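Batch manifest, entry 17 of 40.
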Amino acid sequence: MEPDFSKYVLEGDNSSYANESGLVVPVVTRAGLEFGATGQSSGATRISGVSAQHTPATKLWFGKVSNESGYRSVPHHHGEAETGGYVLSGRARIYFGERFEDYLDLSEGDWVFVPPFMPHVECNLDRDNPLTWMTTRTPENIVVNLDEVADADLRDWLDRP
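Output type: structure tokens
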């Protein structure tokens, strides 16, 4: 027996999200089948579970970012995208500021918002264990890599515990 979707009243025009039968339904990306051809920075692996590249989403990128132990990104920003992050496991640091002189640290369970166009450096504080984030961006996963900065120029990076 087919499910009865007639009880769901949709507001607005959701026709762009309809499947082949004309129904607007949730779209599942199964574990192991995530989209991996996303904007990248060396040492960070970004995969998307929800994105315009493989779901009907048009204004949202939602994915998982994994960083190797001791990893730090090149300076970068995410263009017009607002970015939200959640630390699933590990310890993170985000450098920001005119010369990346400021930073904040995050631990498992912490959330972070990074404003559009804000240059920053993402780091895995742990020298021995990976760091895993859940990340969402709107409208999509924009990654603009900037000129490299030396480790020594990042306050407290070289002598972290």
